[in-house]
Each structure stands twice: as C-alpha cells, then as structure tokens.
Amino acid sequence: MAALVITPGNVLLGTGGKQLTVIAGETITQGMAVYKQTSDNRYYKGNSTAAATSAVDGISLNAASAGQPLEIMDVSKGGEIVIGAAVDLAKIYVLGSAVSGTIKPVDDVGTGEYVVVIGMAKTSTILLVDIIDPGDVAGGEVF
C-alpha cells in the first residue's frame, strides 16, 4: 500500500478533536501531517526520512500557503479525524516518507525511516489519533 489518497474536501475534525490556528510555513493542503519548526514557529509538512522533519504536531484541516493561517487538529489532545480517505479498520497509520505531509500504513515503513505513529483506523474513514514518537529509526523491522 502507498500513502493515503486524501480528498481534501472530506477532511473534518472528529469527536474529541481540538482545533488550533497556526501559520503555515509552506503550501499545505487538508489532511497533511504537519510539524512546528522552532526557528520560525511556522508549520511545515512532516517527513519520516529525516530527524528534523519527523514529528507530527497537527493534521491540517484547510489549505494554506506560506504565511497564511492554517487550521490544524491539535494532535497533542488526541481525538478523531475524518481523514478523507479509505482506511483499514484497526490498522496503524504513520507519517509518510515519499511525499512530505502524507500518512501511510505502518506496513510501508522502510529501513532508515523515523517512525511516528499517527493513530489507528476506528472506521473506514476515521482515524483515532494518538501520536507515538519514539525517535527511533526503523532497521528493517516493521513496528
């Protein structure tokens, strides 16, 4: 399986989710996993191929260009998100690597990726978000 194919207009904050307004550091669309860069306090698309970008501080709820307001799900609070893509019940989803900001099934984790668990599919369209970021690099095993 590859990264989720997200329909931006179908991404919605779900039960228990908390919304936060931040500033985008680059062009971001709905459903992308984002992290806060401390040097400018703006939000960028996460990517599991490098330690500096392998964090998830939110999931975008709207589209924004650099410098514009961005609504995100504050993942530190947990909750649910209607992710705008088909997901497999009870499967774990992680930060993507091939394209920044993507979310993919844990089965697709490759050697050398910094594994960041985003959550588990509660239904065929809802992710129960619970970030687990051990800061570890996959060594060939799938977490």
Outline:
The chain is mainly beta and 143 residues long. It has no helices and eleven strands. The protein has one domain.
Structure description:
With 143 residues, the protein is mainly β. It has one domain (17-132). It is built from no helices and eleven strands. The chain has strands spanning 12-13, 19-23, 33-37, 42-45, 58-60, 69-74, 79-82, 92-95, 103-105, 117-121, 126-132. A hairpin with a 4-residue loop joins strand 10 and strand 11. It is globular, with a radius of gyration of 14 Å.
Number of helices, where a helix is a run of at least 4 consecutive DSSP H or I residues: 0
Helicity, as a percent range: under 10%
Largest sheet: 6 strands, antiparallel
Trace the largest sheet across and list its strands.
1-7-11-10-8-9
Domain count: the total is 1
H/E series = EEEEEEEEEEE
What proportion of the residues form beta strands (DSSP E)?
A: 25-35%
Shape: globular
Short descriptors:
143 residues, five-stranded antiparallel β-sheet, globular, 0% helix, mainly beta, 11 strands
Present the secondary structure layout.
Layout (H helix, E strand, L loop, with lengths): L11 E2 L5 E5 L9 E5 L4 E4 L12 E3 L8 E6 L4 E4 L9 E4 L7 E3 L11 E5 L4 E7 L11
Antiparallel strand pairs: 1-7, 2-6, 3-4, 3-5, 5-6, 7-11, 8-9, 8-10, 10-11
